[in-house]
Write a structure and sequence with these properties.
With about 325 residues, this protein is α/β, with parallel strands linked by helices. It is built from 9 helices and 10 strands. Helix 1 (about 45-55) packs across helix 2 (about 75-85), helix 2 (about 75-85) packs parallel to helix 3 (about 100-105) and helix 5 packs across helix 6 (about 185-195). It is globular.
Length: about 325
């Protein structure tokens, strides 16, 4: 069956079980394969939701320009959506993020402003500098600023993702695990699942080097897309019953395991998700089911994988 545009392929991704990377107690872990979205990322869902909501209420006119700050995946997704819908896009990003993502945005037609980082690491200062630059560009140009850290239009996209998970598991789900960037995906999916079963355990994941959600100090890390270095506006303390800290090295090692043992080629945030999912599964009963997310494809992270291969020998 033909589709009107590539945007019709966003969502309705597969849910698959891990077969070899398993908890000791035998509980089941399922991963939502968001790599099946057109840009290979779950951020396609939120980019489409933010743009269509702004188009619908007149904040974004036909042919109007868009600006955003992003570590990469949101920018790539916005670049796809804006290319299809003919909106010029200006992205504020950084050399801290995967080169493959920056190239992908440019190939899709986005204009890039690249902010220098501290030794290629994600820090609170870098996040705030990117936000300030995007805000300044929006004010000077009159472009529509999607402002992902503040934008609630994306929550509906993740509530729809929760409905997919519920249908695919036939309601058999005991826990859900997701890493926190803007907190929109965890918040939207958690709300959608708890509306169906309020006893589902929700676990948030953050970088061990910058554990601000669990009360620690901000720091530098190299897990793209998560760990802004401050408590993000969309975060709510009651979203998650527990918060797991996962280090960059742990996430990198697990991403390599997933590729070699499961054939799942993903980024470091997915590695962090699986480590936290294993920890949650081991606290549950052997017949429990934990769902987490393969956030994107590893095709965006060859630099990170080179480091993982070097560490693995």
């Amino acid at each position: 069956m033909t589709q009107p545009t590539i945007l019709a392929r966003i969502g309705r991704t597969a849910l698959v079980p891990l077969r070899h990377v398993l908890p000791a107690n035998g509980a089941r872990i399922l991963l939502k394969l968001e790599s099946e979205n057109p840009t290979g990322s779950m951020k396609d869902r939120m980019a489409l939701a933010m743009i269509e909501a702004a188009e619908a209420d007149g904040r974004l006119k036909p042919g109007g320009a868009v600006v955003e700050y992003t570590g990469g995946s949101t920018g790539v997704s916005l670049a796809l959506v804006c290319a299809v819908k003919r909106h010029p896009l200006h992205i504020v990003t950084s050399d801290a993020f995967a080169r493959e993502k920056l190239d992908h945005m440019a190939i899709l037609g986005a204009r890039l402003t690249v902010i220098a980082s501290e030794s290629g690491r994600m820090t609170e200062k870098l996040t705030r500098d990117m936000i300030a630059t995007a805000g300044e560009i929006a004010r000077e140009s009159g472009a529509f600023w999607t402002d992902q850290m503040q934008n609630r239009d994306q929550l509906s996209a993740y509530e729809a993702m929760a409905a997919e998970i519920w249908e695919q598991t036939q309601g058999r789900i005991d826990g859900f695990v997701q890493s926190v960037g803007t907190a929109a995906s965890l918040r939207g999916i958690a709300a959608g699942l708890r509306a169906r079963n309020e006893t589902i355990r929700i676990t948030a994941v953050e970088p061990a080097e910058s554990p601000v959600l669990s009360g620690g100090a901000p720091g530098a890390h190299k897990i793209d897309g998560i760990g802004a270095g401050f408590v993000v506006p969309l975060w709510q303390d009651d979203i998650a019953g527990e918060i797991e800290r996962v280090s960059t090295d742990e996430a990198r090692a697990m991403a390599l395991r997933l590729a070699r043992e499961e054939g799942l080629f993903a980024g470091l945030s997915t590695g962090a998700n699986v480590i936290a999912a294993l920890r949650l599964a081991e606290r549950l009963t052997p017949d429990a089911t934990v769902v987490s997310v393969m956030c994107d494809t590893g095709m965006k992270y060859f630099g990170s994988y080179r480091a993982a291969l070097a560490a693995a020998g």
